[in-house]
Amino acid sequence: MDIDRGDGRTPNQLRPLACSRNILNRAHGSASWSQGNTKVLAAVYGPKFGTKKNENPERACIDVIWKPKTGQIGKLEKEYEMIVKRTLQSICILTINPNTTTSVIIQVVNDDGSLLPCAINAACAALVDAGIPLKHLAVAICCCLAESGNVILDPTMLEEQKLRAFVYLVFPNSVLSVLPEGSLLVDGEPIEHGIITSVTHGLMSVDDYCQCLERGHAASAKLSAFLRRSLQPPNPSDSSKTS
Amino acid sequence: MGLPNASGDLSSEVDVDAFRRLFPLRFHERHLAESIRPDARPLGRARDTTIALGAVASADGSALAKIGSTTMLAAIKMEVMTPSMEAPDEGCIAIDFHMPPICSPIVRPGRPAEAAPVVSKQLADTVLSSGMINLKELSLVSGKAAWMAYLDIYCLDADGALFDAALLAAVAAFSHLQIPVVSLNDDGKIVVVAEEHGGGKLVKDPVNKEKRKLALSSIPFSLTCILHKNYILADPTAEEETVMETLVTVVLNSSSQLVSLYKPGGPVLAYTSAVQGCVALTRQRVKELQEILGEGISVNSGCEGGSLVTSIREQLIAFVLKSKYDIAVICCMLCSEVYELL
Prior knowledge:
The complex is a heterodimer.
Chain A: E1 17-21, E2 29-35, E3 38-49, E4 61-67, H1 75-91, E5 100-110, H2 115-130, E6 138-145, E7 151-153, H3 157-162, E8 165-172, E9 197-201, H4 206-231
Parallel strand pairs in A: 4-5
Antiparallel strand pairs in A: 1-2, 2-3, 3-5, 6-7, 6-8, 8-9
Chain B: H1 4-13, H2 16-22, H3 24-33, E1 49-53, E2 61-67, E3 70-81, E4 92-98, H4 115-129, E5 139-141, E6 145-157, H5 162-176, E7 178-179, E8 182-184, E9 190-192, E10 212-213, E11 220-228, E12 231-234, H6 238-243, E13 246-253, E14 258-262, H7 272-303, H8 307-322, H9 327-341
Parallel strand pairs in B: 4-6
Antiparallel strand pairs in B: 1-2, 2-3, 3-6, 5-6, 7-10, 8-9, 11-12, 11-13, 13-14
């Protein structure tokens, strides 16, 4: 069970998380999210009037722009833009502001593995900061499969390249509800076990994937608790912006 | 959309086509409730699939794959390159996916389609990480020369499940690929040996003695499913993809390992049961596709002959794709034509 990780973490240990909101002056909402050395800045502008071509004007449109740390955007960035866009679309209530566009700009500050999950967490915090109506939050996590079949969480860049396969998973955050437990179950599973987004890389067996899912569920509970804590306004003056 | 009842009442009054356009979601849900889809398929059934190998005569390997009316043309061009320092005895594969304006009304001329780079990236990831091709096989002289395979996939008709059709075309093109004969010339450079030369004129031995095929191990096959409420719809058309937006693409290889499970967002959450359902449907589909690919290869190898035959073959391939003739019938026709020519 013991795997040597470069930074001496246990397999289930996440890197130190940090989240700060409302850091950009001009943006309607902004947040930075970091997991260890991976850091992403997200800014939200909008809702602005009108939707782009080929978008449904009866719903709000979300536009994602991915800015890499250096260089031009390529296919990888285009793919990330599409994944983040569709993930955010699934958590926003799109019928509230029809025929508007909300731009989300993701700026990579430093990439040290688990970049896409980090960006999704940042974007989600920025949307909350901008006061965009959401169904629930999204928490993203990266699980990595070692040669031995063990799962390690939140890999660094080195681990991502070295290990056999990795999975990016996005789940809804855990629901705090006054309803009795069990009434929120879907197919016998709590709502936060439903996969919003799944991206895999590398060969694995189906059982390995299910194992990653389980670990992902456990880790996402911790992450969503952190996200919830960091989204609480520290003082009443700060909450004026979200209204 | 209005109240469910309002549109439900309308359905008895308006024309089916009008209902389909006005209430697309309701139209599809009515079908789903009867466990059938608008094109008369059951929920878990994929559309008819055909593969024709060798569709482009000028390429080293090519294939045309059709899933329903989604059509993909894949062609591979081989070039000799100097391998990188990190991997001196490995070749390289470059994959590009194109969506020209003819493929769909959504793609406008002059503006590249948004989906194209995403599918392109997904294809490259899948082909390279599935372990189908041993890159060492593409090496010619360690550290000096290796093959660069340029795989280009053109979407001729985009009617849903683009990734599935593109992957199928790519895999078929690789199974049709014949690596050309090359030899070292006096300057130590690699030259392609023209076919007419034979072996006589060569000063040095050819590096590649004869045209050879790549050994493909554990070929990846994919199936895209739509999740809508509790239904799982296999192999969606473009219309279904626009109405119900939650797509899950599962890629399994022939040794039943998971190459990719790709779900980019979407309003429906995938629970374990849905994931298992998609994987089970993909397992079935992998078997079907293996058979179809095997058939395609055997038809193609039955046709290999002289250059006379190739032109007939191409005509016939076009014929096969237009009509939905049984492949065996075509094979018989081809044989009889060759006999007549001789």
